[in-house]
Amino acid sequence: MKKAKKIINNPRNVVPELLEGLVKASHGKIKKLEGISALVKTQLSEGKVGLLIGGGSGHEPLFPGFIGENMADGAACGHIFAAPTPDVIFEVTKVLDKGKGVLYLYGNYAGDNLNFDIAAEMAQDNGIDVKTVRVWDDVASAPFDKIKDRRGIAGDLFVIKIAGAVSVEKDNLEEVFRVTTKARDNIRSMGVSVAAGSIPETGEPTFELPDDEIEIGMGLHGEPGVSREKMIAANPLVDKMIEKIIIDLPFKQDDEVCLLINDLGSTTMMELLIVNRRVFQILQNKKIKVYDTVIGSFCTCQEMAGFSITLMKLDDELTQYYNYPANSIGFKKL
Predict the structure, then answer these.
(1) Where is pLDDT greater, at 126 or 218?
(2) Calpha distance 191→151 (Å, rounded)
(3) d(C-alpha 127, C-alpha 91), whole Å
(4) In this structure, are residues 8 and 58 in contact, taking their beta carbons and an 8 Å threshold?
(5) String of DSSP letters for 248-281
(6) Which of the residues 5, 102, 226, 267 has the least number of beta carbons within 10 Å of its own beta carbon?
(7) CATH assignment of 13-186?
(8) Alpha carbon of 80 to those of 65, 84, 279, 332: distances in Å?
């Protein structure tokens, strides 16, 4: 496969330069912590539960793009496709702790789990209360009876949205943890890739996929999916994906859901809208009501071609927090 063309400077400076660019775009609302790859809100409220998100860079706007009003308070950022280190996570934790503790929220990957757990121990040793919610929405990555082994993909967005709102409304870490956990447990996602993303330092693809094939259920970094098949039309492809999502929770008649159609990096809006059309047809036939629809690039892998579908089942409490206005560079809600 050909190497990807990237509009960058020194490949080793990709992460600090992207973070600097994001800070500039915030017009003073976000700042970078000195000496580490981490961003926080410029104005942090006393007595608020801190919301710290994070993970490997290369999936923008996830994670630093979701810092903002009623969203995250800070993000610990690793190198491209690599977890942030425990010391970076701990330094951000100290900044975000305003006397009510800090909630860690991130995707369920081995490196992130290890490093955030170490940072949590460091925080506890320094008198900072920490709770952790790992997102594991990818139904393709493990069976239901091993749900804690599943990967976190685009469902991160909805969990961050809910957590951001409840962390503003409630000043109790246990309560923020409870509601965020409920949101996480009500979310299911599945993705499909039609072409690989690349690693900025080398331009090399993250995996190999023949031009006439797709991989259903592939992870963000090229992790194996549930099946590799010949390219098919949008409708039968969506049918395969949404069936696995719906039966997993399960979603059923009269449920109300939020729907996310996420671009993995280079899929056009035309394609995403065609996918959305088919998802709506299926949900309407099953008498599942779509409360809100979000379409765009939120959890990506450079220029990977493909998309993911996410459903979040709502109840009165989750709807209340979902409706909070949100304003971040990567996601806004009026």
Answers:
(1) 126
(2) 11
(3) 14
(4) no
(5) HTT--TT-EEEEEEEE-SS--HHHHHHHHHHHHH
(6) 5
(7) 3.40.50.10440
(8) 15, 10, 32, 25
Please state the pTM of the whole predicted model. Answer: 0.97
As a whole number of angstroms, the distance between CA 8 and CA 4 comes to 12
For the cut 70, the answer to whether the pLDDT of residue 266 exceeds it is yes
Catalytic sites, residue numbers: 59, 221
User: Residue 121 CB: number of other CB atoms within 10 A?
Assistant: 13
* Cα four-point dihedral sign 200, 83, 304, 331: negative
Kindly write down the DSSP assignment for every residue of 72-101, as one continuous string.
BSEEEEEEETSPPPHHHHHHHHHHH-SSS-
Percent of the chain with pLDDT over 70: 100
* CATH classification code of 187-322: 3.30.1180.20
CB 87 within 8 A of CB 111: no
Tokens linked to 294:
């979000």
* β-sheet bridge partners, residue 195: 305
The helix or strand, by DSSP H or E, that contains position 50, with its residue range, turns out to be strand 50-57
Residues 162 and 183: beta-carbon distance below 8 Å? yes
Three-state DSSP class for 109? coil
Contact between 264 and 301 under an 8 Å Cβ cutoff? The reply is: yes
pLDDT above 90: residue 313: yes
Domain boundaries, the chain: 13-186, 187-322
Model confidence pLDDT, tens digit, residues 166-217: 999 999 999 999 999 999 999 999 999 999 999 998 889 988 899 999 999 9
Q: Which residue has the tokens 């690693």?
A: 199
- 1 — pLDDT class (breaks 50, 70, 90): low
> SS3 for 319?
helix
Q: What mean pLDDT value characterizes the chain? A: 97
Burial status of residue 110 (CB atoms within 10 A of its CB: 0-12, 13-18, 19 or more): exposed
Per the CB < 8 A criterion, the answer to whether 113 and 143 are in contact is: no
State pLDDT tens for residues 24-56: 999 999 999 999 999 999 999 999 999 999 999
d(CA 16, CA 110) in angstroms, rounded, equals 24
